[in-house]
Fold this protein.
Amino acid sequence: MAVQSKTFKYKTRVKWDEARMGSLSCDDKPGIKVATPPEFKGHAGIWSPEDLFVAALSSCFMTTFLGTAEWKGLEFVSFECDAEGTLARPDKEFLFTHAILRPRVILPPDGDEELARWCLEFAENDCLIAHSIGTKISMEPEIILEAPEMMQL
């Protein structure tokens, strides 16, 4: 069976508001304020392109994990992932040189730790945002078997 080529387009719009701030929008989704981060003479408390870059990586990793877990039948109680991107200037231009994903998966007491680890590794390798960038990405997973007494809370 031949595999058909697929192409998808995602459109966003950014509009300058004032100073170093703007509004990011996408059809049928809530808009968000974006700004230059404080370390580049910008604004605190507003999403920056740097925040969104790391957020794109971690949210893509999460959705890839969720799809993989469903596909493989992994039962889990919760998933969360802290992510950290390192912005540096190794030559003349700033770039993200490294990103760390720290996923935490809580499994039921009889959960399959080996399958959870496999799903995390698959998601790390299959994440399309990770494939689309040149940044080195590391994963530091934490898999927790939930204690039976926690299930009753």
